[in-house]
Design brief:
single chain; 224 residues; alpha/beta; Rossmann fold; Arc Repressor Mutant, subunit A; 5-stranded parallel beta sheet; 4-stranded antiparallel beta sheet; 14 strands
């Protein structure tokens, strides 16, 4: 039975979520704020963290940053804010997904399963040409030297490399990186992060050999 940590200060929403998740086969530990959430996190391991952005004694950004400094457990933000700056800031501190309130419970379950699958399949290093990605450590090495990627650059590379050899459409990348709502992020934003990532991992960013563009469709990491 997966163990879920729910950090949410809305008691009514928390009770509703706990009942629903329990009925779906999840064990839920609830914390009402930042201090209690971090204390519960330190007590035993969790399979997924559901984290409210606005907390009475702090904020979700601080909680997420503290958790991600110790563990690669997936963190999903639950928030009433649809502001793009908040969304990007959440991913910059390591969030795995971002769901706006009100949300559909079944969608939440699907997002949780997706985030946990990504974590599980990320237990082995992934290699492509002179690049090695270690999901368990969150590191990327090029010719034996560690590269320093932003949280979004790393997450974009992780998605592409864990699906090596497969076409990843632009829509799917935006969905996995940020949200199913296309209003939160534009195609241009993906272009910007792809350009930054290629400048760091490719020997010749103008003629990339690792991340190939499939014109009009998306991107694909070469299998060799």
């Amino acid at each position: 039975m997966p163990n879920i940590l729910l950090v949410e200060d809305d008691e009514q929403l928390a009770r509703t979520l706990i009942r629903f998740l329990n009925a779906e086969g999840y064990q839920v530990t609830h914390a009402a704020g930042q201090t209690e959430g971090l204390a519960r996190f330190s007590e035993h391991p969790f399979d997924c963290i559901l984290l409210d952005l606005s907390l009475q004694d702090g904020n979700g950004f601080s909680v997420c940053s503290a958790i991600k400094s110790q563990s690669d457990v997936p963190v999903i933000f639950l928030t009433a804010s649809a502001d793009e700056a908040c969304t990007v800031a959440g991913f910059e501190v390591g969030a795995d997904d971002y769901i706006n309130k009100p949300f559909r419970p079944r969608e939440l379950i699907a997002r949780m399963k997706n985030a946990m699958r990504r974590t599980q399949r990320g237990s082995q290093t992934i290699c492509c040409k002179n690049l090695t990605l270690d999901p368990s450590k969150g590191t990327v090495m090029k010719d034996g030297t560690e590269l320093f990627l932003s949280a979004l650059e790393y997450r974009l590379l992780l998605i592409l490399m864990t699906n090596k050899g497969q076409l990843m459409t632009r829509d799917r990348l935006i969905d996995e990186l940020w949200s199913v709502s296309s209003e939160l992020v534009s195609d241009n934003t993906l272009n910007v992060y792809m350009k930054r990532l290629r400048e760091k991992i490719e020997d010749d960013p103008q003629n990339p050999l690792i991340i190939k563009t499939v014109r009009g469709m998306g991107y694909k990491v070469t299998e060799q």
